């Protein structure tokens, strides 16, 4: 999950858009379609629950990192791009393009999910169901406050960046970064789905919030700001706490 300059910028941005599409489609799609039990022919089909959603997000990042990471570095998350830039692992000049590609990929995934969801018998309302959006207060799965949601998003995004920076360092074991990062995201979701429905990724939050009504959009600012703050904290402090490992990117 670092910069891959041997590819053209168009290829790198395409890989970021595809990877972010896959993350939102796989993770949010699992939350929308498979998380809860659904009655089928007078029987109750078993949903995957929060554990299944957590695994889905981890698996999308794991598979995306190996599929698209060699091209773009496999950020799939504006907060990750910011954190890597702060840590001097990624060029600031490339940040706007990466963020735009990530938001576009996430939004396309949200749009495709909505089209599929509306095909169910009886219809589908993304506002009423929440459409896998993040939230606080009455939009938090367990009713957590804005302060609790903001704090957990900052802390967990910072930890996520520490894992990314550590597993992509020269001193790290070669070839295991995608596995470690995917498992870290799974654990992050296990911790925070009850609190915020887990963002740690502004693109993931925006990708579904666009379609879930005004209340979702009014709260999405937290899931843009808090992950970026957490990522920046990790980017600033990583070398001080754990030592510099590689030459900075210009």
TrEMBL record:
Keywords of this entry: Membrane, Transmembrane, Transmembrane helix, Transport
InterPro entries per UniProt: Aquaporin-like, Aquaporin_transptr, MIP, MIP_CS
Its membrane topology: Multi-pass membrane protein
Protein origin, superkingdom: Bacteria
Protein localization: Membrane
Coiled-coil ranges (or none): none
Major location (coarse): membrane
Keyword Membrane set for record: yes
Transmembrane stretches, start-end: 20-40, 47-68, 98-120, 144-165, 172-196, 216-236
Homology family: Belongs to the MIP/aquaporin (TC 1.A.8) family.
Protein name: Aquaporin Z
Organism: Aeromicrobium tamlense
């Amino acid at each position: 999950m670092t910069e891959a300059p041997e590819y053209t910028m168009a290829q790198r941005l395409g890989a970021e858009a595809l990877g972010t599409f896959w993350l939102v489609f796989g993770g949010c799609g699992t939350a929308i379609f498979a998380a809860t039990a659904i009655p089928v022919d007078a029987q109750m089909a078993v949903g995957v629950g929060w554990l299944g959603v957590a695994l889905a997000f981890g698996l999308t990042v794991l598979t995306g990192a190996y599929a698209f990471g060699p091209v773009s570095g496999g950020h799939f998350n504006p907060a990750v791009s910011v954190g890597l830039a702060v840590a001097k692992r990624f060029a600031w000049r490339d940040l706007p393009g990466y963020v735009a590609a990530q938001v576009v990929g996430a939004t396309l995934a949200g749009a495709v999910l909505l089209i599929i969801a509306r095909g169910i018998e009886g219809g589908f309302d993304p506002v009423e169901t929440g459409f896998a959006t993040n939230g606080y207060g009455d939009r938090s799965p367990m009713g957590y406050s804005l302060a609790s949601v903001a704090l957990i998003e900052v802390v967990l995004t910072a930890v996520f960046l520490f894992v990314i920076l550590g597993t992509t360092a020269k001193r790290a074991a070669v070839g295991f970064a995608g596995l470690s990062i995917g498992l870290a995201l799974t654990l992050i979701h296990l911790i925070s789905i009850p609190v915020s429905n887990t963002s740690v990724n502004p693109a993931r939050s925006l990708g579904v919030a666009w379609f879930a009504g005004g209340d979702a959009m009014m709260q999405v600012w937290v899931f843009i700001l808090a992950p970026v703050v957490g990522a920046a904290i990790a980017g600033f402090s990583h070398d001080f706490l754990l030592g510099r490992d590689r030459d900075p990117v210009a």
